[in-house]
Specification:
Blueprint (H helix, E strand, L loop, with lengths): L5 H10 L13 H13 L7 H10 L14 H13 L3 H12 L3 E3 L1 H6 L11 E5 L4 H17 L2 E5 L21 H13 L10 E6 L5 H6 L15 E6 L1 H8 L3 E5 L1 H8 L8 H10 L5 E5 H15 L3 E4 H7 L5 E2 L11 E2 L3 E2 L5 E3 L4 E3 L1 E5 H4 L5 H18 L6 H10 L3 E5 L1 H7 L7 H29 L18 H5 L7 H6 L8 H14 L15 H4 L13 E6 L3 E6 L19 H12 L10 E4 L19 H13 L4 E2 L2 E4 L5 E2 L10
Parallel strand pairs: 2-3, 3-4, 4-5, 5-8, 14-15, 18-20
Antiparallel strand pairs: 1-14, 2-13, 6-7, 8-19, 9-10, 11-12, 16-17, 20-21
EC number: 1.17.4.1
Function: Provides the precursors necessary for DNA synthesis. Catalyzes the biosynthesis of deoxyribonucleotides from the corresponding ribonucleotides.
Catalytic activity: a 2'-deoxyribonucleoside 5'-diphosphate + [thioredoxin]-disulfide + H2O = a ribonucleoside 5'-diphosphate + [thioredoxin]-dithiol
């Protein structure tokens, strides 16, 4: 739809209820025109047909009848900048600059919904927990319905629920276990979607030491009975270190019923340190338990990952050991990158709260690595992004789920990440997984860590408020900063130094100075960094997804309405082609090493996908030599254990490229993708 002026366009959108009036009123219209001029002067154009198609198909505002587009990319950027700046003119200008130059990309729910009159929430994802009683189960199903309706994907932990056959009110064998609850949740998500924009999506997590673990995994098997099979629900495992130890030593493994554990320890199963208490729990006759072989469960996990791409794996002890926040991380989200502390609730018979715990909502955004490295001011760019993400947290008020509302109001959490690593490396003629690539990744995420801390400290000082629990954190006592003041993370390789030429890189003295500022002034955001997966938005950014290698040099996508679209890897040329190797032909050891280099500086997690071929190329993995070239459960077990050794906090999908050119486990999560 064409308009003669910007004013005419905004008047039309407001009169016809396409955009909200409140955020527009916070600015003089002359200023809005000034921001628009700045955006238009950047002369933005899509670099590929795929980028333009994805934007107009999924993100652009259309008339109610779908006959006309009401905005292009520039106009969506304008609304995002004005909306997230919340009346702050300087921030609106800065944010417009970051967005139109594609240094910053808000998550899909934020970018899509900002400023719209009829919209879902801006939040990317939620994490909620169930306690072991009907009141809590009912409340959690209601929460799942509500959250799926208004926002992104929902992660739910079932670890606290008693297992099948456990007693209820001293009646033996009365409990049905976790599987029927999974079916209830799956139906809830199918029913509740975001104004019809997309299918509701959920993930359920279970601790590997739960008595129902085998039944939980069986729900995803191809030959599972329809009564127990879950088709659309994602499965995730909470894996303590003790499991890896039992597998390594080929020992028996005891599974514990949460009902008995809670009775003995006086707290829900999720909040008990199983690695620490395992031997005591085995010895305690008050805790019902059963024995299986640890390696048989390990093999079952690998089989299921081959068959379906599930389950996700959260190395819960690794996550907790690295966490600077007092409290316990018990689960993750739909894409396995959100790792934050929670506290349990107690629900009364009338569904009110006797004790209001805390759950999680998270707002995600991503830096475009290629473009941020070209920023005139790296630090200013990251600070601008941190402020924009924090606004989403501050403006979010999820009153339908009081635990999420409380968690958000106390923690102000955000999750800034990165995408386009492979594009950056190829453009600069660097091999993925090489020494230079790993050092670059480490320094890049160290910079994100540093500048988000600077921004969060400035916000705390400006607002006169830190996140609840700051005083008990390793930020407040300074311990978090010790590794940076004791070790120099600045680049040591000449090639890496060249890449960061002209960009300020903090050394130990800078970190020491920041430590003192944070200990004095506090931090506004409890959590700051997380690397989410990238879906269609990486095409719009003309970059590669997340931190993993490309899938194909020329990607072929079947789009329902128009047929096949071909998408060449960004910056693909005769010079860069040899640096673009498919993820399916790249050793996952290199991918794990890359993510480990970033993980050291990221306070939350990362959506690390493993890419495998049914027939593995020769020379890719040393342990395959002299054995079959077919992918086996052993390959996945070795990679999961290697990732654990490298302090990787979570593993997302396992995607397998089959011999008949199909993909298993390629169903992307649309809710949390940046």
């Amino acid at each position: 739809m064409k308009f003669d002026s910007l004013k005419e366009r905004f008047d039309y959108l407001l009169e016809n209820n396409y955009i909200e009036e409140e955020f527009i009123k916070k600015y003089d219209f002359a200023f809005i025109e000034k921001v628009a001029q700045k955006i238009y002067s950047a002369n933005f154009t899509f670099k590929t047909f795929m980028a333009a198609y994805k934007f107009y198909a999924q993100y652009a505002l259309k008339t109610n009848d779908g006959a006309y587009y009401l905005e292009g990319f520039n106009e969506r950027v304008l609304v995002n900048a004005l909306y997230f700046a919340d009346g702050d003119e300087q921030l609106a200008m800065d944010l417009a600059d970051e967005l139109v130059n594609q240094r910053y990309q808000p998550a899909t729910p934020s970018f899509l919904n900002a400023g719209r009159k009829r919209r879902g929430e801006l939040v990317s994802c939620f994490l909620i927990q169930m306690e072991d009683n009907m009141n809590s189960i009912g409340r959690a199903i209601n929460s799942a319905l509500q959250l799926s309706r208004i926002g992104g994907g929902v992660g739910i932990t079932l670890s606290n629920l008693r297992g099948a056959g456990a007693p209820i009110k001293d009646i033996q064998g009365a409990a049905s276990g976790v599987v029927p609850v999974m079916k209830l949740l799956e139906d809830s998500f199918s029913y509740s979607n975001q104004l019809g924009q997309r299918q509701g999506a959920g993930a359920v997590y279970l601790n590997v030491f739960h008595t129902d673990i085998e039944a939980f995994l069986a729900t995803k098997k191809e030959n599972a009975d329809e009564k127990i099979r879950v088709k659309t629900l994602s499965l995730g495992l909470v894996v303590p270190d003790k499991f890896y130890e039992l597998v390594k030593n080929d020992e028996d493994m005891y599974l514990f019923d949460p009902w008995g554990v809670e009775k003995v320890y006086g707290k829900p199963f999720s909040y008990v340190d199983i690695s620490k208490e395992y031997d005591n729990m085995v010895a305690n006759n008050l805790i019902p338990k059963k024995i299986i072989k640890a390696r048989e469960l390990e093999t079952e996990i690998s089989k299921l990952q081959q068959e379906s791409g599930y389950p996700y794996v959260v190395n819960i002890d690794t996550a907790n050991e690295a966490s600077p926040i007092a409290g316990k991380i018990i689960m993750s989200n739909l894409c396995s990158e959100i790792l934050q502390v929670q506290t349990p609730s107690e629900v009364a018979n009338d569904q009110s709260y006797l004790q209001l715990g805390t759950d999680i909502s998270c707002n995600l955004g991503s830096t475009n690595i290629v473009n941020l490295m070209a920023s005139p001011d790296f630090g200013k760019s990251v600070k601008t992004m941190t402020k924009a993400l924090t606004f989403i947290s501050d403006a979010s008020d999820i009153d339908v789920v009081p635990t999420v509302q409380k968690g958000n109001s106390q923690a102000h959490t955000i999750g800034l990440g990165g995408m386009g690593l492979h594009a950056y490396l190829a453009k600069n003629h660097i091999n993925y997984g090489s020494k230079v690539a790993l050092e670059f990744t480490s320094v890049y995420f160290m910079l994100l860590n540093y500048w988000t801390l600077v921004a969060s400290n400035e916000l705390a000082v400006e607002k006169g408020e830190s996140f609840v629990g700051f005083e008990a954190s390793d930020y407040a006592n300074g311990k978090y900063f010790d590794k940076y003041s004791e070790k120099d993370f600045r680049p040591s390789l000449d090639r890496t130094k060249e890449l960061f030429d002209g960009i300020f890189i903090p050394g130990p003295a800078d970190w020491q100075a920041l430590k003192e500022k944070v200990m004095t002034g506090g931090l506004y955001n409890q959590n700051r960094l997380a690397v989410a997966p990238n879906g269609s938005i990486s095409y719009i950014n003309d970059t590669t997804a997340s931190l993993h290698p490309i899938i194909n040099r020329i990607e072929e996508r079947q789009e329902r309405k128009i047929g096949k679209i071909y998408y060449p890897a960004p910056y693909l040329s005769n010079d860069t082609i040899k640096f673009y190797q498919s993820a399916y032909d790249t050793s996952m050891i290199k991918v794990i090493n890359t993510y480990a280099a970033a993980q050291e500086h990221i306070d939350q997690g990362m959506s690390l996908t493993l890419f495998m071929r049914s027939t593995i190329p020769a020379g890719l993995y040393p342990w395959k030599e002299g054995r079959t070239d077919k992918m086996t459960t052993r390959d996945l077990s070795i990679l999961r254990n290697y990732a654990h050794d490298k302090k990787i906090k979570s593993i997302y999908y396992v995607r397998t490229f089959t011999d008949n050119n199909g993909e298993v486990g390629a169903n992307e999560c649309e809710s949390c993708t940046i």
